[in-house]
Amino acid sequence: MSRPVRVLVTGAGGQVGRDLVDTLQGIAVPGADPEFWPDDHPVERDEFEVVGLTRHELDVTDRGDVVRAMTVVRPDVIVHLAAYTAVDRAETDADTCYAVNARGTETMVLGARASGAHLVAVSTDYVFDGEKGAPYVEDDLAKPLSVYGASKWAGEQYCGPEDSVVRTSWVMGVRGRNVAHVIAERADQGATVRFVDDQVGTVTVAADLARALVTLVRARPGGVWHVANSGEATWFEVARHVGECRGRHDGFATAIRTDQLDPAPLARRPRRSDLATDRWRERGWAALPPWREGVARLVADRSRGSVA
Questions:
Q1: Regarding beta strands 5-10 and 48-53, do their DSSP bridges make them parallel or antiparallel, or are they unpaired?
Q2: Which of 14, 52, 157, 207 has the lowest tally of Cβ within 10 angstroms?
Q3: What pLDDT does residue 36 have?
Q4: How far apart are CA 47 and CA 26, in angstroms?
């Protein structure tokens, strides 16, 4: 009998990291569709041996830390989720953002090479400028508008063709603080919300992304992959849908333009950065469920007290 595949997950304390660690261990994840597995294979007992390290347990910018982790864990696959994700703060904290997202990825690439592990590195739709006017495919030219997007693109450049780079977008899960929880709280409080309708993207539910990452851990395909729930959306449409899930309808969400935001965000966002996932489907893997379905699961599990 073969031994379990040993998987090291960086950023294991984040919303995707927590969902991924549990999924690899065969633990039920809040907000997940129990029937959805992109490769049609649920996790088997003892299929994986998982070591999840939070940012307090592994500093990805410290090469000594990474070397020690590789020596102790001896992973077969590394899923690199650790990231600086404060998009607006990054505009005034560029050094830290680049240290984590660019040099931290370089360090993990070097660690993967030294240990013979396959690297799955997670990136973002913000590597694009949003001017294409259609969904972005993996080979489209990256032209980031923000420090955050540029730092993630710089991190991608350290990856080789043997590494698997996953671009995803607008991630939200049951666990961890994100925009879906903020909207749901406002709905429950009887308040209203204002969200922009001139930014288009693809929503990604953390529990669904975790199952997609399991597929990549198994397949180790290399190359760039766009992974997100099906269908495009604006932030206004997301807000309206969350409100409807909480019983709020007309009058809850109001559409505004980005230039009406007060205070104005420090970082520029792409106007349209929705991700085409054709390459994923052409590989024979199932598309992630429609975003409305995924968000409804997220909100339902949150309302049952699953959020932590």
A1: parallel
A2: 157
A3: 96
A4: 9
Span 96-136, pLDDT tens digits: 999 999 999 999 999 999 999 999 999 999 999 999 999 99
Longest dimension (CA), the chain: 61
pTM beyond 0.70: the answer is: yes
Q: Is 37 helix (H, G, I), strand (E, B) or coil?
A: coil
Four-way CATH pick for 5-177+203-229+273-289: 3.10.180.10, 3.40.50.720, 1.20.1260.10, 3.30.1390.20: 3.40.50.720
Q: Is 148 a catalytic residue?
A: yes
Mean pLDDT in residue range 151-169: 98
DSSP 256-287: E-GGG-SSPPSS---SB-PBP-HHHHHTTPPP
How do residues 38-88 score in pLDDT, each as one tens digit? 999 999 999 999 999 999 999 999 999 999 999 999 999 999 999 999 999
Give the Cα separation of 283 and 220 in Å (integer): 12
Q: List the domain boundaries for the chain.
A: 5-177+203-229+273-289
305 pLDDT above the threshold of 70: no
Candidates 84, 98, 126, 148; catalytic one? 148
pLDDT for residue 100: 97
